[in-house]
Amino acid sequence: MKEKDTSPVAVVLVSGGIDSTTCLAIAGANGHEPFALTFRYQQRHSVEIEAARRVVQALRVTRHLILDLPFSEIGGSALTSDLEVPKRRSVDQMAREIPITYVPARNTIFLSFALAWAEVLGTADIFLGVNALDYSGYPDCRPEYIEAFERMANLATKKTVQGELRIRIHTPLINMTKAQIIRTGAELGVDYSLTHSCYDPDPQGRACGLCDSCILRKRGFSEAGIPDPTIYT
Predict the structure, then answer these.
(1) Helices (DSSP H) in 90-157: which residue ranges?
(2) Which of 43-47, 94-98, 133-137 has the lowest mean pLDDT?
(3) Most exposed: 75, 144, 160, 194, by fewest CB within 10 Å?
């Protein structure tokens, strides 16, 4: 049986941030019908889940699946425990060190769920908004990691082993700067006021402006020459 290299439907991981939102827009612009996948992984705030809902609605996604994962029971990250979120780090520090906001094996787990859904849907295409330039030192955002997961995916499922599918992990932002990502999204009509990036928002959901994600976001908008719509404390 001939492998399916592409399909109209694509599973797109959507967190509600700049990168995943832009990736979602790109998938649609490339002719796919995006099915959005978001995880409620007991992160320290629910603001990003609401952002993901807003983004998916604005981009008229056919289906949005939100799954619960008990990451806080594992711990090991400032995003899923009471560990303090680092603030005021330089961009050089972000590039050199893996921060405490790293969630153990998060992308591997997320992609595994995306792979399972893709097999059920009969689609060969999974989109992930990882970035290797402004990636805050996360090991599971590197090209070699994505390539390794794609190889594994094609050995791991019934439909790939039987030759019905050839899974492709699309990472259209992998070699783009944050500014390039924002410009691309703006050209596709993305409303970035719907998105959320902050690791440590206040109770009203306002961004701290000092965590790694906020710093990269502010720098990206500045370099893109586009006003940042974020409300900071």
Answers:
(1) 91-96, 106-121, 143-156
(2) 133-137
(3) 144
What lies within 8 Å, CB to CB, of 117 at 6+ separation is: 11, 35, 37, 65
Rounded percentage of the chain residues whose pLDDT exceeds 70: 95
CATH of domain 9-224: 3.40.50.620
Tokens of 57: 């609605």
Query: What is the number of other CB atoms lying within 10 angstroms of the CB of residue 196?
Result: 25
CB-based contact 195:21 (threshold 8 Å): yes
Does residue 134 surpass a pLDDT of 70?
no
Using left for φ > 0, alpha for ψ between -120 and 50, and beta otherwise, residue 227 falls in: beta
